[in-house]
Amino acid sequence: MPESNELLRAARERVESPSCPNEPMTRQELAEAVNAQVYRVTEKVTAVDANHVGKWERGTIRWPAAHYRAALRAVLDVARDGELGFRRPACGNTDKVDRKTFLKTSLGAGAGVLVSRHLPAPCTDADGLAAAVSGPTAHYRRMEATVSSDRLAPAVDAQLSLATGVVNDSLRTSTGFGVLAEIAGLAAWLAADRGDTGTARKRYSEAAQHAERAHHPLLASYMTASLGHFAVDAGRPRQGVVLLERAASQLDKTAPDTARAWLASLHAVAYARCGDRRAALASLRAAEGFTSRVRGEPQWPWIFTFDGAKAARYRAEALGRLGDVRASRAAFDVAGPALTAPKPRAMAQVEQARVLVTAGLVGEGCQLATEALVIGHAYGSERIITRVRAFRAGLPIRTTEASGLDDALAAPYVRETW
């Protein structure tokens, strides 16, 4: 008779149930969380259930497949397999039962994907339902930088409404709340881009709450940090710093370098906006160190790699706010080649325009701001337009070099029919 795995059972029972407060996570809830984590990392659909978790806890399976062990470490917040009682068999092979289940699941998932391209199958279980509801989210997130927020927001808001109903009705699980968090976070970003700060704040707060109920430390940190960065952008950097520090405390020891590099970069901008030079420079050094170690594909909830070029954009903004014009311009030069999407490029151009004006290059700064304004109007980004207005407000009223920018800012009012 196999020896039971008490370490795994104890680790599960240390986690609070997402559906029953003050109660331990059930085997089925752990199974759902594992399936969701595997899907987030590999985009593969798996079919772990309570019975499968029971085999792990009873010791019937002592060495699950690598993707299951990785998911269990993430969900149960441990660093090593041994902390969950898993030991590699002496022969070096994984358990036959686990391999059989893995092959069955993988082949079934692959066949399902092929069939669904032609004739989608009905959702018959919670995992299938969650995957169907969350399916469009990654595509919408990839569109955001190049599609008008006015066009994309209605689709995302409709998806959020649908997901909220589905989760409340039949998917009050870690997986369900994780789905809701990601969609609400995207809805918040789009609301902020349209200038609807009230809705953006509400959606970001909801995303952070859903992420906590998903029992996913990385997702919770991501959403809390997004709320903090929103506060900084909205002109409340001190509140933003508080939220960013909370996000940092939510990261566990298994958090990838991408997460730490991104968070340190956000911290640098927030501290710079507060005028805290020492803290901002320390955060920039930390971000540089973490970025140098980033390897491989991004880990969900990130969908793009946070590399040196992306970090350089935040470094340029922070240094510009600190008045280090030369270093800021050098950082913009590094960031430039990676800024191929229109909206992120326009946001960076406005920050670069501020730095150019500080360097005495008012005409060049106004030209960059005008180019950014054109993008803002073309893509319905009130975020960009507001930044350009703030840039112009920082210049003297009678600035000859700003005449073209003034005309561009006034144009929408001239075209308006009264």
Number of helical segments? 19
Question: Could you tell me the radius of gyration in angstroms?
Answer: 24 Å
Q: Helix fraction?
A: 55-70%
Structural class: mainly alpha
Overall, the morphology is elongated
The CATH fourth-level homologous superfamily of the largest domain: Tetratricopeptide repeat domain
The average pLDDT score comes to 85
| Main beta sheet | none
- Estimate what percentage of residues fall within beta strands: under 5%
Instruction: Tell me how many strands there are.
Output: 0
Number of domains: 4
- N-to-C order of helices and strands: HHHHHHHHHHHHHHHHHHH
Can you give me a brief rundown of this structure?
By secondary structure, the protein is mainly alpha-helical.
What does this structure look like?
By secondary structure, the chain is mainly α. The chain folds into four domains: 6-116, 434 Repressor (Amino-terminal Domain) (Orthogonal Bundle); 129-199, no CATH class; 216-338, Tetratricopeptide repeat domain (Serine Threonine Protein Phosphatase 5, Tetratricopeptide repeat, Alpha Horseshoe); 339-418, no CATH class. It is 70% helix and 0% strand. The chain contains 19 helices and no strands. Residues 92-121 have low confidence and may be disordered.
Fold blueprint:
Elements: H1 6-13, H2 27-42, H3 50-58, H4 66-76, H5 96-116, H6 126-143, H7 149-170, H8 174-193, H9 197-213, H10 217-233, H11 237-250, H12 257-274, H13 277-293, H14 308-321, H15 325-335, H16 342-358, H17 362-378, H18 382-393, H19 403-415
